[in-house]
Amino acid sequence: MFHHPMMTLSENKRLSVTPLLSAASSTTTTSSEASDDSSPASARFEISYHHFPCTAHLLSGSFFSYRSLAVLSGHKGSISCLSLCGEFILSASQGKDIIVWQQPDLRPFTKFGQGDGSVKAVVTVGNKVFTAHQDSRIRVWKVSRSSENVFRLVDTLPTTKDYLGKFMKQSNYVQTRRHHKRLWIEHADSISCLAFYNGLVYSGSWDKTLKVWRVSDLKCVESIKAHDDAINGLAASKGIVYSASADGKIKAWGKEGKSSHCLKGILEGHKDVSFNSVVVSEDGRWVYGGGSDGFVVGWEGRTNGGDQIGSWKLVCETKAHQMAVLSMCLMGEMLCSGSADKSIGIWKREAFGKLSKIGVLSGHEGPVKCLQASPNCVGGGFMLYSGGLDKSLRVWWVSKPSTTQKSTEEKSVMLS
Fold it and tell me: Residue 116: its pLDDT value, please?
């Protein structure tokens, strides 16, 4: 099956037969900003497929197994972020290009990109992809099955319409640094993270602000002076948006009805320690922050008589890595942590939010900058994608922990 270890992307496109996103629109939208860089004729990619047997361990009373499936090489710079987009996995790097890998065969499908500076974050919303950039802009791409340019640039945020509606009014300008003002809808520094929830896209920046964008019309509806230092991570669930910052705090933001967002709580970390990432469970109950001291700190969210969480209790402080925790993702009761120590920790959430270590994935030759888990169940486990400063995208199969050796053996047979 895997007999093309190296191929040009144009050759691969002729081989691709998997249909595009089922949610993608059948109409196309033109844009004066659309880039010609989507032509992949000169790009070369290397795919190394691994056929290692499952490695199994018994930790904390649970059997755990994993398998390294592939190493995907094609980026010229360090991989900065990953995102699932229907049947695709998107990987972005310090260069402007975003590579689209097709699942499940992991072949490169196409690439797209535009703008100055590296891509810092990617989030998928229906048939649109939002990308955040070092040049302080957000670009919006439409996925269309009726165009050769599958990922077409349709707008840049803030939009021209948003600018024209605000630039002539002095009250719309804010001080960003000495003798320098910007419109409040603009970020003044690199955008580091994105999150989506309930029709809104949230952007966090090194300028310390959190901005809110309405997906329906791409308008910036709110700007929040959120932190005393750079915002490094965002996560949202059950009406609460969490922002993790280099100031050592994770702040929880919520809104009542159509009102503006307000501060609901502050989750304090260790003194003089930056939070590099934050994740929250689907039910909104568990929040975890990854720190520059190698700790993962967890809180339990509690409701105050209603549906929305209004208070948080510290439940764990786990020394996860010897160096900084740079990235995290959740898959059910399992938490994956990527670190500057080049390893990926696999953790299981136990009673009361405590974390128990069930495995370590090694292979990256540089810090692990980003992680993305796929919700699809494969052989009793899940697919995990990791991007590193070594410019590689690694693909893993990770089992869900079992308490019997038999179930672990069955999973190994299914993948052999």
Answer: 64
**Average pLDDT score over residue span 78-97:** 91
Asked whether residue 43 carries a pLDDT value surpassing 70, the answer given is: no
pLDDT at res. 368: 98
Q: Which residue type sits at 107?
A: R
pLDDT at 413 over 90: no
pLDDT in tens, 167-210: 889 888 898 876 788 899 999 999 999 999 999 999 999 999 99
Mean pLDDT of 235-252: 97
What pTM does this model have? 0.83
